Amino acid sequence: MRPDTPADHTAEAERLLRTAAQYPEDDEQLLLQAAAHLELAGDRGRASGLYDRLLAAEPDHPQLIKALQAANLWEYGHEAEARALIAGIRIAAPAQAAPWEIIAETLEAHDELEASLECFTEALDLLLPEDDDVPYATRSLLTGRHRVRRLLGLSHDDRDALADRVHAAHTPDVSLDELHNPNRLWALGSDNPAELRAEITRLRSELGSFRSALSRPFPVAVLHWPERELAELLEAYPELAAEYPGHKEHLASIESSLRDLAATGTENLGIVTATVPSYEAFAASEASSPSNANLLPQYATTLAARGRAAAWPPARGAACWCGSGRVYRECHGASATS
């Protein structure tokens, strides 16, 4: 299953570490993947240890690993070490785009915009051909430089124009200026630097709120089978009858489970609606049989992770989650409001 929670990322990291032990000839790529999952799990200390382990083993891509380590260390609270690694990478001037992109974006993420622009520019000075035939790996450097220059409020130069042309050739519907216009010049109607800085500050605040929303845990979701879908499920997989003795009982169980969870203080509750084809596809992705009842909670969690959960309880005056068409307060919510 696709990792969605810190525990999932930790488990995936452990799997990759075991695989690396079995196949030491491929351990660099496997350990890099494991380190990435540990970062996503919030275990930056272990991730840093893996990067150190790789660097001690004379890796094939040392500058890439140093760049990843720098990004991790800065988030881990070791800014001085991160800056030292970034300075070393710039001196080494790697001939690959990825280390440059990582360190430039790390600096950008920590509001070091001038230094970020310097990194993007140094990389393009080194890697961009004289003609306008921009290699695929270099496009992201052009795009990143364009973005940072817009954040700094700088006028377009020749490389910004080249970035616009490359972007338009592959994504003609939205201009790069529109994508990279966080100061919203069209709305402000002003070139006043103070107003631009105020707008950038506001947008960064919005971005922080958006990131906070994304970081919230997925709903604790309960699986709901509509009557027709449940009948089809049990006809195809009678082994699941123990889980679902009947549709009426199934609906009552959902409401009861959610109320019990709410009574214990559990927040962010939701309901996900299941279908047999979707469940069968999920079972196939897990290399398991749909008759395996242990898949059901995993299926519910995956649907919730994909944004399929409806909040419970429904809003005042909203229809009941069961699909009856009646208002929730007059259907499964009746006993809760009586």
What can you see in these coordinates?
The chain is mainly alpha-helical. It folds into 2 domains: 6-214, Alpha Horseshoe (Serine Threonine Protein Phosphatase 5, Tetratricopeptide repeat); 220-337, no CATH class. The chain contains 17 helices and 3 strands. A 3-stranded mixed beta sheet has the order 1-2-3, with helices on both faces. It starts with 5 loop residues before the first helix and ends with a helix. 28% of the residues are buried. Mean pLDDT is 83; it is low at 183-188 and 205-217.
Shape: extended
Structural class: mainly alpha
Residues in helix, %: 55-70%
Strand content: under 5%
Multimeric state: single chain
| Element pattern in H and E | HHHHHHHHHHHHEHHEHHEH
Distance between the termini: 42 Å
Q: If you compute it from the alpha carbons, what radius of gyration comes out, rounded to the nearest whole angstrom?
A: 26 Å
CATH fold-level assignment of the largest domain: Serine Threonine Protein Phosphatase 5, Tetratricopeptide repeat
The residue ranges in which pLDDT falls below 50 over 5 or more consecutive positions are 183-188, 205-217
